[in-house]
Structure formats: structure tokens, C-alpha cells
Amino acid sequence: MVEGNLPGESNALMVQVPAIVFFILTPMFVGIRFWSRIKMRSGLGWDDWTILFSFFCCLTVSVLMMISCEYGFGQHIKNLSKPNKLMTLKLFYVAQIFYKITINLTKASILLLYLRIFVQQYFRVLCYILLTIILSYMVATSASSIWQCTPIPRAWDKSIPGTCISLTMNWYANAGFSIATDILIMALPSMCCGSRNFPSTRRGRSWLSLLWAATVDIASTLWTLVEDNVAIICACLPMCRLP
């Protein structure tokens, strides 16, 4: 624990516990996904490499948040020494950028998986449209996080003169977009999963992953660390099967 802070209550465990749990769970699901792909000789596709990159971004978020707890994240800001407060806010500033990349890359991975499974032309067009929207939003929201303040250091040190965007409005917009795209991604396969030509075993796995994916929206109301990790696990579920 970094010294210099005043004693007081801390909610750091709300960050540390899920971080430790998902340090084990998330790599396990990603590993099973890749192992299954290799054993089934189905080949690794863009969806797999996208989820792998998303996993490393997610891991970065977890590490940054764990380190920030050592500096006082989870304690009342008045109890933090100035150096620790600045370091905590700086770590959170970087973490939120990787968080937004993680969530949107995971959505992109699911859509890339859809493109790998479904052959219907109208369905693929919808996937490409939604994929373009999500990736464009990822670039835009990441940029807005990086340049949320002018100059940039004002994002973690408000004593520096300058201006900042409304973080409240930014997070509301991000939450709205995330929930809307989650719903669209979950709804898309219903166009094909009910088809008689769609294999029953694959249909079952698809609906299982969709029902599990619904928990992402619930998780997003709890912790950032839970949301991005659960999203990655959801994206890996359809491939987590024995060869």
C-alpha cells in the first residue's frame, strides 16, 4: 500500500475481488476458445484475433485499476494525499480508454463470428453495417476520452487551467450506445436461428450464448471490470466445446 493517505473506509475490494476472479476466468475461456479452434481444425479467424486483442486491453484495465487501488482508489478523495490523488486519477484516465476499446472490440468480435457462421446476404449486410458503426464509435469515443480536456493533463489535475467536456454526458452516451448495440447484436441471430435449415446443435449454442450475453447489460450497472470481462466470456462461449 502506498503511504501518505489518511485512514478511512475503502471500497477497493469492489475492484480487487472481481479483478482477481476474472484474472482466472477470462483467460481460461479465451484459452478454451483457441484450443477448440485448433483441435477442431476450423482455423483461427478475425473474430478470434479480435477477441484476443480485446482480452489484452481488458487485462490492461484490470491491472491499472488494481494499481490505482494501491494509491487510494475506492477511498474518499479527501483522504488521499495530492500525489496519490493525481496518480489515481491518471491511472483511471488511461483505464477508461482501454475499457472503451475492450467493449467495442468484443462486440466487433461477435459480429465477425456471425459473418463466419451465417451466409444469408441480407444478414451479412446488416452485420457489416453494425460492425462499421461500432468500430467508428470506438475510434470516436476513445478519442473523446484521450482529448476530454485541453490541455490533456487537466483530465487528472484540475488545478491546471483549461476546459473539459462533460464526463457525465459522455458516460451517459456511452452507456446508451452500449445497451443499444448489445440489443441489436442479440437480436440479429433470431433472423437465422429459427430457420429449419440451421443445425439444432448450433442453434442451441447460439441461443445459450445470447441468453448469457444478456447479463452484460446487468453487469454494466455494477462494475466496469465485470462488464468487459463478462462480455469477452460471452463472445467465447459458442466456441467453448469439446472437439
Word description of this protein:
The chain is 72% helix and 2% strand. The relative contact order is 0.14. The protein is globular and about 60 Å long. It has a two-stranded antiparallel ribbon. The chain has one domain. By secondary structure, the protein is mostly helical. Mean pLDDT is 82; it is low at 198-208 and 211-222.
- With strands numbered from the N-terminus, the spatial order across the biggest sheet is 1-2
Beta-strand residue percentage: under 5%
**Would you list the SSEs in sequence order as H and E?**
HHHHEEHHHH
Report the mean per-residue pLDDT as an integer. Answer: 82
Helical content band: over 70%
State the distance separating the first and last CA atoms: 46 Å
Largest sheet: 2 strands, antiparallel
Question: Total helix count?
Answer: 8
Counting DSSP E segments of at least 2 residues, the number of strands comes to 2
Keywords: Membrane, Transmembrane, Transmembrane helix
Protein name: Rhodopsin domain-containing protein
Family: Belongs to the SAT4 family.
Transmembrane segments: 12-30, 51-73, 93-114, 126-147, 171-194
List the helices and strands and how they pair.
Elements (H helix, E strand, L loop, with lengths): L12 H28 L5 H26 L10 H36 L3 H26 L2 E2 L12 E2 L2 H21 L2 H4 L6 H20 L4 H13 L7
Antiparallel strand pairs: 1-2
Helix pairs in contact: 1-2, 1-8, 2-3, 2-8, 3-4, 3-5, 3-8, 4-5, 5-7, 7-8
